[in-house]
């Protein structure tokens, strides 16, 4: 019988980070994956997060940025969004593992009696569980290369078990596993020097826990000359051609091209003993980049939300807007508007020069009144409007209050005792008390009605979109809405839940209960974002 856990040929690339966080391990991993994919390899990326939450679904976006939802309904780290946007292939629960999940699995096994008689310890039980999760992608999904990004920075207490697992895997897998270490080479303006000492120290920190990096990627704002690269190579025991610079660029989408110029993919393949083949042209990708660079006109879109102080909170929405604007040969001028600051008095001034308004997803009642005012402004002034999840629910509430004259209309999320729950808790949510992983999550079918804004965008009647919510449009009000001019143009074919609303009389007014932003990629921009941005461009001020 075949051993299910065997990893016959899969190669493993581990990406660690040193010196500081936020160096862009996710982007480097996604770029490398893109380059290997363009050479014909089946590649996937995995993110290991060293925190104790079982998933980031219970984290405030201020803490960790947006929560990204996969097709199979996993609430994951936003880096998975980068992976999908770069690779154009879906990720899944297996692509994001946290310390919380690792411990939960180990403790469940302990309770089941799987380790009967043994003392359960970090080594080997936690490290074995980490290794199992890493290898799972290779064995079960048969990828040629699995790139595993270790969250955090080397030296953190929290990431130690992960680095230990990497050390063991390198030993077990030999030349089928390599480590890329990403560090920072700071530039000291006062002395005009680039400094390699932090890199040397962080490689030392890795060596102390038994891991010798094979490749170093150095983040820098200035070009690193061969002298500096040689010095780093010498002090860190790596080949000088395995010292790769990652220079600051304007758009994250330039990074794969930069990494190709630096030969990152070739050195990785060489070290993994895989055929290098022909250098890919990246034609379509470069086509996108040239549009991005050469766009002369601008489209001004307002993103109304309550987490705007941290743009990572709306990562996928902003990227989806960039994709769409770029394909329409426009630069995106995004205005992040804190919904809590919008009042009847200042709304005109705040939203005046916007060509399109997007009301963002969210939870809880903070900032809701501002969102409702933004919806009203867009509806009355005929400004293209896109409501996403809570944004769609706001469009429904606003319409109910202002057009249907139900002034007490609300979502039950905001007012538990509302007499007009136009947005209500879904039936199957009513008995749920746990907060983690219990929303309506993942991809569901949506049937799209012909003769609608959304059909014009999708050009097909059946689509699949990802969800993350507990509340829904209340179908008891559907007739009233439709006869007053707000139509349901998308619904779930099994449950009849309303997934899309629009106002056909408006220039472009669409609200979606799902999250289209999660599935917009560089080479496949999302049709709804394409149409929303197109309508906004038509609104030229
Ligand atoms: N809070 C709303 C719900 O749970 C909307 C969620 C969201 O915007 N993702 O239904």
Report on this model:
By secondary structure, the chain is an alpha/beta fold. It is built from 18 helices and 23 strands. Helix 1 packs parallel to helix 3 (79-87) and helix 5 (122-141) packs across helix 6 (160-173). The chain is globular, with a radius of gyration of 25 Å. The model is unreliable at 1-7 (pLDDT under 50). It binds glutamine. Glutamine (GLN) is lined by residues 361-363, 389-390, 413, 468-471. The site of glutamine has 10 residues, from strand 19.
Summarize the structure.
The protein has 541 residues and is α/β, with parallel strands linked by helices. It contains 18 helices and 23 strands.
Spatial ordering of strands, largest sheet: 13-12-14-15-23-22-21-18-19
What is the tally of helical segments? 18
Rounded to an integer, what's the Rg over CA atoms? 25 Å
Ligand identities: glutamine
**Which whole number gives the mean pLDDT?**
94
* Helix-and-strand structural type: alpha/beta
Helix proportion of residues, in percent?
25-40%
* Large-scale geometry: globular
Summary tags:
7-stranded parallel β-sheet, binds glutamine, alpha/beta, 9-stranded mixed β-sheet, 23 strands, disordered N terminus, 36% helix, single chain, 541 residues
